[in-house]
Structure formats: C-alpha cells, structure tokens
Design a protein that fits this description.
Blueprint: E1 5-9, H1 10-25, E2 30-34, H2 42-50, E3 55-58, H3 61-69, E4 76-78, H4 87-93, E5 96-99, H5 102-115, E6 119-125, H6 139-147, E7 152-159, H7 171-188, E8 194-196, H8 203-208, E9 217-220, H9 222-226, E10 244-257, E11 267-273, E12 285-286, E13 291-296, E14 301-305, E15 315-320, H10 322-330, E16 335-339, E17 352-354
Parallel strand pairs: 1-16, 2-3, 2-9, 3-4, 4-5, 5-6, 6-7, 7-8
Antiparallel strand pairs: 1-10, 10-11, 10-15, 11-14, 12-15, 13-14, 16-17
Helix pairs in contact: 1-2, 4-5, 6-7
The protein binds pyridoxal-5'-phosphate.
Pyridoxal-5'-phosphate binds next to β9 and α9.
C-alpha cells in the first residue's frame, strides 16, 4: 500500500461527532464540524454530517470548493474573514461567513446581489484572543452599518478563544459574550440568531456551566477529529483519540555508535523513515513506546528503537497531534486512506481503499 499515508477511521469520527453533538444538544447548543485540519476531506465531512452536526465550517474557500465538488450540499460557514478577491466564490459556495471588515462585507453584498442571493454575515468579536475580531466597543456601530448593506443579512456574532493568545473561555468571558448579544439586540433588534462561542476549547465550559446564556453554537474541529481538549492536550471523556494514524516506511536500519561523551559503549538501532518535515510536523507526532524520534529533516526521519531493530520495508505506526494532522492532510506525497467505514465497536476490518 502507498506509503507514507494517513489512515482515517470514519466510524470513529462519526462516533466522536455524535457524542459531542448530543452532549451539547442537552445544553441547547448546536455544533458545526470544522474541516480545515483535514483540508475539506469529503469523507471526513460526511462522517461529521452523519454524526449530526448542523453544518460544516472551514477557514479556506479552496477547502469549501473541494467539498462542494464532492457533492456536499450541507450549509458551510467560512470562519476566516473573506479576501476581497474571493468574495464571489464565498457567496457562491458558503451560506454564511465570519467578518470583521466593512469593506469586505460591502463586496459580499455586491456579489450576492449579482447572484440574486442574500449572504449571511456573522460578526467576529474580539474577546481578548487578539487575533481577528471587531472590538466590543465598535460592535453596535459595525452592526448598524452591516444592516444597511444590500445583499447581506446580519445573522449573529461569534468569538474566538485560545487561538493566538491563551485566554481560556471561562464563565466571565462567556457571560460577557452573552451580554454583548443582548446589548446588540437592544440597539439593532433580533440580529443575534447565532451566538457562536468558539472551538473545542469551549467544551468544558459548555458542559459544566450552570447556564449557556445566549451562546447557542460551537465550532468543533480538534475534539471531533482527535478527541482532545486543545487547552490541556488531554482526552475528552468518551471520545476516541485514534481516528487518524500515520504510516511511514523504514528505509534504513543500522547500529550507530553514540558519539556522546560518557556513552561510548552504548549502541542502538537507528532507523530512517521515508517521511520528513515536508509531510508532517515532527514535534506533533506520538511514537510507540519502544521508538524514540531523534530528529527530522525535509525528507528523512531518524528514530531509535530500544528493543528490536525495525525491519527495512516494514512500516511504523505513528499517532498524530493537531499540527501533524494538518500538515499531513495537506501534503501531496502523503496518501489519504479511508478505513472501512463502520462503527469501531463492530471490530472494524482493516479493509482499505486508497482515495488519493
Ligand atoms: C479552527 C477554528 C475553529 C475550530 O477549532 P478547534 O480547536 O479545532 O475546535 C473554530 N473557530 C475558528 C474561527 C477557527 O479558525
């Protein structure tokens, strides 16, 4: 089979999605499935949809177009403010987009009128993460301006936490977002149909808070795909962390003397895997306990095995964190292989089909 490759277990992704959707539904919160880490892979997107997400979300229009070409008709939200140069395609392919700039929203309106559509706009509010967003003090003025632009409809507000900064979405932060929604409706009328709280980092708040306030949507990527809480790196209860696995082939195994002083008599089995920094983020890989990563270059990954030597031609099974997953899914030389799509507890047979 093609190597290196990412093996994707769609049954586990569907199961993680269903667990999270149901958990949040009990709190009155709907879930969008975020597909950017898998480059809009249509199999993954469909697994999220069959797990019950109310729509999909991606940061890049190229990923959205990939999903539309694959026949996905579910609503898709663009969660990065559109480039002016891409507004036509944004209106064509996305029902909703996140916005922070009036100039962009005006252009979305122009394109929407040309296509005879109304494009929905969510205003991204800056809540301390210091990445994208309208400052809370400017929100009402911005909303009033958006309401006057033909071709677009203001649908709500959204916040971002723990992307650039390390602001944890605690109760005071989330209450502040709810208060902003209320204040905005006081000024502009019912324009906050959607109050989108944030990504996977908001799950602990959403499941534990005494009240969700006005927040009625989360946008989940990492929790669905990897079963992890991005803030702690720990597993989220009840989720699978092994929906994705990386397979790389051993191309050299030799005994190499340790050049380190004081370790002259120590030798180990060193192997080279045919994969490198072009394909994956080495710092975000999880090797089996008997294998240690020694270093990586663009095309080689050097590992040390403490037990038996790795056989040339055999494959190493490697777990991936978010950054490794993201890079591997976008790397042209890493094949994406979907494992037989059935629930994992049926004892999934490893029958695979190569997709790309
Ligand atoms: C990536 C992203 C998300 C999803 O984040 P996860 O931590 O993967 O759940 C949500 N919202 C925005 C705006 C994003 O860019």
């Amino acid at each position: 089979m093609t190597s290196p490759r990412v093996e994707i277990d769609l049954g586990k992704i569907r199961s993680n999605t269903r667990t999270l959707v149901q958990r949040l539904q009990r709190r009155g919160i709907t879930t969008l499935g975020v597909t950017k880490a898998v480059c809009g892979h249509s199999g993954v997107a469909n697994a999220m949809l069959s797990g019950g997400v109310s729509g999909l979300a991606d940061a890049r229009i190229s990923n959205v177009e990939r999903m539309r070409k694959a026949g996905i008709t579910a609503p898709i939200t663009l969660i990065r403010t559109p480039m002016v140069s891409q507004t036509e395609n944004v209106v064509r392919h996305c029902e909703v987009s996140y916005n922070t700039e009036i100039a962009v929203i005006e252009q979305l309106g122009v394109e929407a009128l040309k296509l005879g559509r109304v494009h929905s706009v969510i205003l991204m509010v800056e809540m301390g993460d210091l990445r994208d967003g309208v400052p809370p003090d400017d929100l009402a003025a911005c909303a009033i301006r958006v309401m006057s632009i033909p071709g677009v409809a203001l649908k709500g507000i959204a916040a971002n936490f723990t992307c650039l900064g390390h602001i944890a979405p605690d109760q005071p932060k989330m209450s502040a977002l709810s208060a902003l929604a209320k204040e905005l409706e006081g000024i502009c009328g019912p324009v906050t149909q959607t109050v989108s709280g944030g990504g996977s980092v908001c799950i602990p708040w959403a499941t534990q808070a005494p009240s969700r306030g006005r927040v009625n949507e989360l946008r989940l990527g990492e929790a669905i795909l990897l079963g992890l809480d991005p803030m702690t790196g720990g597993q989220i209860e009840g989720l699978r962390t092994d929906a994705f696995a990386l397979k790389a082939e051993v191309i050299e195994t030799k005994i190499k003397q340790q050049p380190l002083e004081g370790f002259e008599d120590r030798c180990s089995f060193r192997s080279i895997l045919a994969i490198g920094c072009q394909d994956v983020d080495p710092a975000s890989l999880h090797f089996p306990p008997n294998i240690t990563l020694m270093g990586a270059t663009s095309d080689h990954m050097v590992v040390e095995s403490t037990t038996i030597p790795l056989k040339v031609g055999s494959e190493c099974h490697i777990g991936m964190g978010y950054n490794a997953l993201m890079r591997a899914m976008s790397a042209p030389d890493v094949a994406k292989v979907v494992l037989d799509d059935r629930p994992y507890h049926d004892g999934a047979v490893e029958k695979a089909t190569v997709l790309s």
